[in-house]
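Ticket #4471: structure export looks truncated?
Reporter: QA, pipeline team
Priority: medium

Steps to reproduce: submit the single chain below to the structure queue and open the exported record.
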Amino acid sequence: MRLALLAAAFCALAVPALAQTSRPEPGPLTIAKQGSFFIGGREVKSDTLSTLPNFDAAGTITVDQMYVRYQAPAGQTGVPITLIHGCCLTGKTWETTPDGRMGWDEYFLRQGHPVYVIDQVWRGRSATDPSTINAVRTGKKPVDQLPTVFSAGHEGAWAIFRFGHQYPQVLPGMRFPLAAQAEFWKQMVADSAANLPTPNPTVPALSELAQKIGGTVLMSHSQSGIYPFQTAALSTQGVAGIISIEPAACPDPTADLGPYKAVPILVLFGDYVDEFPRWAPRLKSCRAFAAAVSAAGGKAEVLALPEIGIKGNSHMLMQDDNSLYIADILLRWIGKNVTATR
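Actual output as written to the record:
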């Protein structure tokens, strides 16, 4: 019964997403302030910073810091939203779509929300630590200590992002703008997350950021889907809400649910999930987690878009051709469930 009521409520919000229609030009954007900064970081002293003769090998560098770019709209503002990208990507995920449409970072800003976009630690504009690589290169450490670096090829990513079951097949009705796929592939970068401790240093950095902001919705995607939950487990201070988009994992429903009862949670999935062995178990486990939180007195919801009649969405929901309508669903959920200060 609860699932039926939930689906009906979201369906009332989401009907426009059934058919993509053009929107009028939004006009000039007025920004009250914008900037960037770093959260976290630690110093590393090493004698293997370089293998190039013109640069000193010994010295001190700062690593594990998280880059943050922010923009705040003029006038009265809504709850801030922090956007956290997934595997093999950077904060570019949330910016202009591959085919040139408005990204969620700008759209949320235009709807009155301050927006914070991060690059995960060791990704994009957040520095990596090259000292171990150079130590192996110079023979100071054995080869088996060489850090693991992963890059997703176009062919393998095709199925992971659910464009099709295998490259270059396309799922029927799929809404990702494949005509602009070359621009999407340019967004992908090497992933060094396997070299980082658990939790990823991005997690305590997100906790520090949430407290610095004074209350924010942590909106994550894919690999980073678990990070807002890990952040809340450290401290719920500053975590006004969690929106996890197609997370690689949700918390174990038998774990301590205390932190999650204090935070409104929405987990969002797109289409075709049941057709992929990578994704179907993840949706199932997230449903179990949400049910456990709700039973414990919290507010956690899972929304699979086909259940409210929205079909064709890939793993990259924020870039699909109906991305702004999906954004509207999330904004209405925030308006209904999230208060600015927590």
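Status: closed, not a bug. The export was complete when the record was re-opened. Leaving a note from the reviewer for reference: Strands lie at 31-46, 59-73, 81-84, 115-119, 216-221, 239-245, 265-269, 300-304.
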